[in-house]
Structure formats: structure tokens, C-alpha cells
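Give me C-alpha cells for this 392-residue protein.
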Amino acid sequence: MYTSLRPLSTAREMGLAGPSLIMPVIEGTLIEETLHPVRWAVIAALGIPCALAVAFLAAKLVGHNDAGRIFLRFLRLTLGIEILVLVILALTGFLYEWRAESRDAILYHPPGRLMDVGGYRMHLSCAGIGGGPTVILEYGHQATYFDWALVQPEIAKFARVCFYDRAGYGWSDPSPRPRVPSVMAEELHTLLDAAGAKPPYILVGHSYGSFNATMFAHKFPDEVSGLVLVDGMNTFSLFPAPLRERISMRAMQFMIPFGLPRWRGWCGGGNVPEAMRGEKRAISCRAELYDTFYREREAYPESVFEMRTITSLGSVPLIVIPRDPTIGRLSTADTGWQRVQEQKMQLSTNAELVIATGSGHDVPLARPDVIVAAVRKLALTPRAPAGNRGTP
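Here you go.
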């Protein structure tokens, strides 16, 4: 079945619409656009000693020993001053970050509950009325629960709806376990049990989160009454992490304790209202978060291999919501776009395609109404027993 819905201006009115920061390449662009003062300071700090070293070697080669000694003296003096300045800046940045994190700990607290899932805690926040399926919202790679700011309140009007932070994200503790869908689905299941949540569940997965939502439906079919995949990832590529992206994440992880990313606004930014930026900065400017980003991104190929083993979820009600193919260089005639949607639709014999007209990848912010309508439809659909759905 094919459906197309018209866009609303809700996200733009709240200041949430626009490019997402969940993709590493976009975050890298943000860093580059704000890097100029630091970049020039680094260039000067490296360039001056290098120039003096070259001058010293040149003087030695041509036999000007007196000039060589002068250049060497200046080189040593320059290096000494730079090391001293670097130490002072590092200590200053460390104190700045420590004070900022202490302030964050006083001002901001998890909106939900932290539950033990086996030696580490994960965060779950629920709202809305019970009596029907519980809706579980799963955001994408390098995203936050703020992506659901326009979705959760609307779903809460007619159903119980929860968002959670994957291990290492948001308010959740890092996990020692591999960052692949099979593990993360088990962690979510443990979290829901610990929190006393009752199935059946409707899982809503955006971007990379669609992998985890699909895996959960595969591993726990008796507990899933519906699935919504919002511009989810496909398994046609292994998505290997480029070297530049890996270096960027490790660099952020190293710099955060010294306050530079917070000072320059490289973490905790994005399209959220001013009132939410402090909380987003509190959960985003953390070194362990970027370690989680790195581990999750590095495991993409393994994650894809896991997802390729899932060829069918039986007849579980499934709604696939892709981005508008007319946004950017895609079109409905694009064979790649069609293949991706066909692959997702093949997961269930009871699948429906709903294009988020007017939206790019950030459907939860640009077209929350499409997601809310899909969840409402699934919540009102009578649930068939898993055994009658032909679930593997």
C-alpha cells in the first residue's frame, strides 16, 4: 500500500526544523565552520618552530655556525614558551569543563528513570495513557531524545509512549558489550522488563534506530504488535567508517575533558529551542559519548551482516516512512531509492509505504505528523497472536 501525506509547518514554528546533526559528516562540517581561531593558533604554533628548525639546518649546512646557534636558541625558547602555554591552556580548559559539568549536574536531571540492566544503568522516560500497546521510540546514530520532541507529546495523547537512551547515549551509562543490533535489542528488552513495562510494543525506529527496532521485533515477536521504520538504514552497503570520521570522533573524545568542544560549541548544538540547549549540552559534551559513537560506527559492517540474516518478520503490521525522494537528487524513479523501500517492505506481508512528503532525513522534526498518524493506525489495529502472523 502506498500513501503520501502533506507537510506541516510545526517543526519550523518551534525552531526544530532543518539539517540534523546526527550524521557524522554534518557534525564534521559544523566543526570546520567554527574552527578558524583554533586552526590559525595551531598553524602558528607548528609553523614557527618548523621555520626556525629549517633556518637552523640551513645555517649549519652553509657553515654559518653563529647564525645556527641563534636559530637554535630561538627554537628552544619558542618550544619552551609553547609547552608552557599549552600546559596553562590545558589546565584552564580542564577547570572550565569541570566547572561546567558540575553546573550541569545541578541544573539538569534525567526526565525519566535510570534502571540497572546488568552492571550499568539505562535511561527510560515514558508518558501518556495506558490500556493499549506501549510505543517505544528509538533514535538514530549520534542523535538524542530531543529528536522526538515533536512526536512523543502527540502520541502521549492516545497511547503510552517511551523514549530511551541506548547505552552510552544521553543519560545512560556506557556498555562494555558490542554495539550491534542484537546486543542493543537485548539491552532494550532488559530495560523494559526492569522498568515494569508491559508488552505489546509498537517500535518506532529512525535512521540507524531502525536496525535495533527490527532486531527487537525479530528476537521478541510475541511482544511486538507493530513496527514503524522512519527513513531507516539499508543493508546494501556495509557503511565502512572513513578514516577522517574516525579521527574526528577520537579527537572530540580527547578534547572534551579540556573544554574546547564546549567552548567552541562543537557539542550540544543543533536544532533545539534555546530553553533546551543547556540540557542537550549536558548530555552531549561527554568524552564517553564520543567513544560510544566510535564503537557504534566502527561496528556498522557487523551490524549490517546481522540485519541481512533477518529476511522476514512474518505478518507483523509494518509501516515504512522514507524521506521525500524529490528532496535533493533522489526521485521516485531512482532505482536505488526503490530498492531500499522494497527491501524494507519485504520484511512483512502486512506492510505499508508512507512517504514523508516535504521531508529529508529528519522526518521526526520535519514531519512528526506522519509518524504520529502511523503509530495511531497501528495502535488501533487489533493485534494478532505471533503464531498466527507467521513470525520466524
